[in-house]
Amino acid sequence: MIGNDWDNALQEEFEKEYFLEIKDFVNQEYKTKIIYPKYEEIFNAFKLTGLHDVKVVILGQDPYHEEGQAHGLAFSTPIGRPIPRSLKNIFKEIQMEYDYPIPESGCLESWAKQGVFLLNTVLTVEEGNANSHSKCGWQIFTDNVIKILNNQNQPIVFLLWGKQAEKKKELLTNPNHLVLITSHPSPFSARRGFLGCNHFKLANEFLKDNGLAEIDWRL
User: Fold this and answer.
1) Which pLDDT score is estimated for 37?
2) In whole angstroms, what is the distance from residue 6 CA to residue 81 CA?
3) Which of 5, 53, 62, 143 does the annotation list as catalytic?
4) Mean pLDDT of 139-166
5) Dihedral angle, C-alpha 215, 69, 25, 23, nearest 10 °
6) Angle at 102 between CA 79 and CA 158, to 5 degrees
7) CB 69: neighbour CB atoms within 10 A?
């Protein structure tokens, strides 16, 4: 049980055959290999941001696959861990937009608690083996999560960074929402559009225009 309104929204999803297959696969992987994040943190994004609290969605790919980095939130790392390069570029963009100092921590839980849904499209990964769980069914599950979000009446900002995230645009058909697309913040592509995209200010302007509280992007 997640412990909030996601439980009702996902009840039928959790009972579908494909999800039961994901569950069996993941349980076996955790028994026999080192898998990230910790088992109890797989659904952290859902636990920290209830469905009806979602104001901004940031899509990641699969979790960090090195020890101690992943904790169930896209792009985020626990307090005390080194900040990954993609997250450093996210902080650089926020500094450019708002002149906020670069944080010393990469933990984004404060964003999640304000309504920023930090969703990886794949929720687990084997240590040292990126994309190792990308074909076990997680993509079906998270696509259906995105469809649930798309059907919400409350306006939501979807930040789609990189080609993998951009593919989800076809799932977003509700005119109530704002979809912003640019390159991934990784060092290999950040200068192809991400740096200078102004997405954080644009998201807040949209929230304000729709009578919703803005996100405080400072950590």
Assistant:
1) 98
2) 29
3) 62
4) 97
5) -30
6) 80
7) 19
Task: Give the count of beta carbons closer than 10 Å to the beta carbon of residue 57.
Answer: 28
Answer whether residue 148 shows pLDDT above 90.
yes
pLDDT-above-70 percentage for the chain: 100
SS3 of residue 32 by DSSP: helix
pLDDT, residue 44, reads 98
Q: Per the structure block, which two tokens stand in for 67?
A: 């020890």
Q: What is the Cα–Cα distance from 139 to 81, expressed in whole angstroms?
A: 27
User: What's the chain's Rg over C-alpha atoms?
Assistant: 17
219 SS3 class: coil
Cis peptide before 37, with omega less than 30 degrees from 0? yes
Residue 25 has pLDDT above 90, yes or no: yes
Examine the pLDDT at 1 and tell me if it is beyond 90.
no
Asked whether the beta carbons of 122 and 65 are under 8 A apart, the reply is no
Active site residue 62: yes
Amino acid residing at 87: L
Give one DSSP letter per residue of 47-115, joined into a string.
Answer: HHS-GGG--EEEEE-S---STTT-SSSTT---TTSPPPHHHHHHHHHHHHHH-PPPPS----HHHHTTT
Work out the mean pLDDT of the chain and round it to a whole number. 97
β-strands 56-60, 157-161 pairing: parallel
Rounded to an integer, what distance in angstroms lies between the CA atom of residue 65 and that of residue 84?
Answer: 11
